[in-house]
Write a sequence for this structure.
């Protein structure tokens, strides 16, 4: 590896120092399913969350549709085929099938556990949508009942590796105690979510790509990082990036005329284009009164900002914006190497948004229920895989912290997280850089981001309070560099990645892009799976 | 952003200190928690859902801090309004199972 390796040879004891078979980092859907599944396999499990397991992450405040499809072969094939074109034919049917099977089982378990699924007029239980607060409160209870130790407000800062390079735990801070924790484990599941660059998208400020950075420092690589420019519609003043109801909206310029081509689905770039020069407004004016009532019951969180501002979104127009959701509603992440959701590094597993979702989504999701299905399925497999690996793993005698950037003990000058975050945001937020991508603009941005990295790695974060924000900022910077390097390498348009200098999809580039490295980053193509029969026929 | 901890209503259970994902509050012994790091608030409304006495108010605005008065929001029925709408307050529990999303999306896609 080329990055400056940590000069620490042994991890210092933590104020809390625990030993477990499996450590799960992150307590969203992926992490909670991973923790349960590892514990059900007989492993001792510790789960750490940066925030609070049950409220933290993208799902808890947002809620999600779920890819819950009954095991009827025709329906399953239709469900798989329906999104393949949008995803640029990068999905893997075998994985899609697995995820459909696993999601069906897991959602039915939720019902057994008492999740209050609604029933329709025919008395049938409807299970395609999950209310975030309800779902994640239930998952926390199940994690507790499975005997898992939960450490809240305990951000992981870096992984521990043994002499052989296998991952053997992690360490971080207990931010409400202002001291440290160490968990020595035989296997680690990274379920720390994606990276939304602190754009204030709903629930996403805790999602700063920490897992990507920690894993890369241990030698893992990523895939699909060019599919990382998901932008979601929100009221200009608010955080609520819930986009479904904008399917019933009209988008207008300040003078009241319609923005041509603007739509929530398939017309979001027209909104972005208009926002470059002026304010855009929306009004949910195409919902009839019955639909309006249904909407209030379906997504109470959507209405909170409006009710508090005294706006009736059905009758009045309101200013909107697009917030970057990066890989949270993109699809890139850590590359998985087998069915147990192992990464290429011994002892390290990944699930949910921390892992690449190209296998089921290809290059596009924008929501649409695959992410939730992926989080619960990959979490379940990663937990089981980690537990099984822990059962036979031989851990070395030494545990060395693998973190590089911000831990530089010879660093000159203090790491300035707030300024670094602003610089990274200035590269990744603007539509003219990240939405309307071109080679020239991406190259310039890569140059500036590389310079930021070069300077940041000379600095050090001296206080414990400081180190959490410094590592978050560093992880966002690393993510931005992987994202734009991959975007430069894909000289075509596919999935959500649109190159305005290469507008066509190029059949020769139907491949996955792996990106690896910290100081020096390299991108490599890997073959995509065989095309599904329908696509071949077309 | 989080704007109000009602000193009148708060029973100092410190649940909000525990559940806030971005660690905005500091516990104060035998008193209402302090909004210690308002700028870190991500406007996710989760603290309101867990407060057992509807003592918290999160304004919808992500950027600016607005001066909002407790009296006004209480009068407008906004204290605890979100908790009631998801069926987490007493007398509203029947709303927990009333998610109607399936009427808007024909089938998962
Ligand atoms: C507004 C919105 C609406 C969405 N709607 C849909 C939808 O309808 N359908 C769909 O399929 N998907 C949807 N998504 C995407 C979906 O929410 C995510 O794919 C899903 O939450 C991923 O689960 P996760 O467990 O991987 O990550 P998260 O739920 O984001 O959880 C990650 C957890 O990791 C913790 N963490 C982060 N860093 C660290 C660290 N260093 N140490 C310890 N813990 C850490 C965080 O605190 C958090 O608890 C939506 C997303 C948003 C933002
Ligand atoms: S709105 Fe969310 S981030 Fe803000 S104080 Fe409440 S729980 Fe914390
Ligand atoms: S949750 Fe409510 S009652 Fe409890 S400490 Fe916070 S504000 Fe006070």
């Amino acid at each position: 590896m080329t990055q400056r390796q940590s000069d620490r040879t042994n991890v210092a004891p933590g104020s809390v120092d625990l030993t477990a078979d499996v450590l799960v980092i992150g307590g969203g859907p992926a992490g909670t399913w991973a923790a349960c599944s590892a514990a059900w396999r007989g492993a001792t499990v510790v789960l750490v969350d940066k925030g609070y397991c049950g409220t933290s992450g993208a799902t808890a405040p947002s809620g999600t549709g779920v890819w819950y499809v009954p095991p009827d072969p025709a329906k399953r094939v239709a469900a798989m085929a329906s999104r393949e074109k949008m995803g640029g034919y990068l999905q893997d049917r075998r994985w899609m099938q697995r995820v459909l099977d696993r999601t069906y089982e897991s959602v039915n378990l939720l019902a057994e556990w008492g999740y209050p699924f609604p029933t329709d007029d025919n008395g049938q239980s409807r299970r395609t949508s999950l209310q975030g607060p309800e779902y994640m409160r239930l998952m926390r209870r199940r994690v507790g009942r499975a005997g898992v130790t939960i450490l809240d407000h305990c951000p992981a800062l870096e992984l521990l590796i043994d002499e052989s390079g296998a991952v053997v735990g992690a360490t971080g801070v207990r931010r409400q105690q202002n001291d440290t924790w160490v968990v020595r484990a035989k296997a680690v599941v990274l379920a720390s979510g994606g990276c939304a660059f602190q754009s204030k998208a709903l629930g996403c400020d805790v999602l700063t790509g920490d897992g990507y950075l920690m894993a890369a420092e241990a030698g893992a690589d990523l895939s699909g990082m060019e599919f990382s420019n998901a932008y979601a519609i929100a009221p200009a003043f608010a955080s609520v990036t819930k986009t479904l109801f904008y399917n019933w909206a009209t988008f207008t310029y300040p003078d009241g005329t319609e923005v041509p081509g603007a739509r929530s689905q398939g017309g979001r770039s027209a909104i972005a284009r208009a926002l470059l020069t002026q304010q855009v407004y929306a009004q949910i004016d195409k919902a009839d009164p019955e639909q309006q009532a249904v909407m209030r019951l379906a997504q109470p969180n959507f209405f909170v900002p409006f009710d508090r501002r005294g706006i009736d979104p059905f009758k009045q127009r309101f200013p909107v914006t697009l917030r970057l959701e990066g890989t949270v509603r993109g699809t890139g992440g850590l590359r998985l190497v087998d069915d147990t959701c192992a990464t290429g590094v011994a002892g390290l597993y990944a699930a949910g948004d921390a892992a690449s979702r190209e296998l089921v989504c290809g290059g596009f999701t924008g929501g649409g229920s695959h992410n939730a299905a992926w989080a619960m399925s990959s979490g379940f497999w990663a937990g089981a895989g980690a537990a099984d690996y822990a059962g036979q793993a031989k851990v070395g005698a030494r545990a060395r912290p693998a973190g590089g950037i911000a831990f530089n003990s010879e660093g000159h000058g203090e790491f300035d997280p707030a300024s670094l975050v602003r610089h990274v945001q200035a590269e990744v937020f603007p539509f003219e850089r990240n939405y309307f991508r071109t080679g020239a603009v991406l190259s310039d941005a890569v140059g500036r981001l590389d310079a930021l990295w070069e300077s940041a790695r000379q600095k050090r974060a001296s206080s414990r309070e400081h180190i959490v924000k410094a590592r978050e900022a560093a992880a966002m910077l690393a993510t931005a560099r992987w994202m734009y390097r991959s975007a430069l390498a894909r000289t075509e348009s596919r999935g959500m990645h649109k190159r305005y200098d290469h507008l066509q999809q190029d059949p020769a580039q139907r491949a996955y892009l792996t990106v690896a490295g910290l100081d020096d980053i390299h991108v490599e193509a890997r073959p995509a799976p065989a095309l599904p029969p329908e696509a071949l026929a077309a | 952003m989080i704007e109000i901890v009602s000193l009148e209503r708060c029973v100092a259970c410190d649940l909000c200190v525990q559940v806030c994902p971005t660690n905005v509050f500091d516990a104060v012994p035998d008193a209402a928690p302090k909004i210690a790091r308002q700028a870190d608030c991500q406007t996710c409304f989760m603290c309101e859902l867990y407060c057992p006495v509807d003592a918290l108010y999160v304004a919808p605005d992500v950027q600016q801090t607005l001066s909002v008065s407790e009296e006004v929001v209480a009068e407008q029925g906004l204290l605890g309004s979100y908790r009631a709408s998801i069926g987490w307050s007493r007398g509203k529990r029947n709303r927990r199972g009333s998610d109607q999303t399936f009427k808007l999306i024909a089938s998962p896609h």
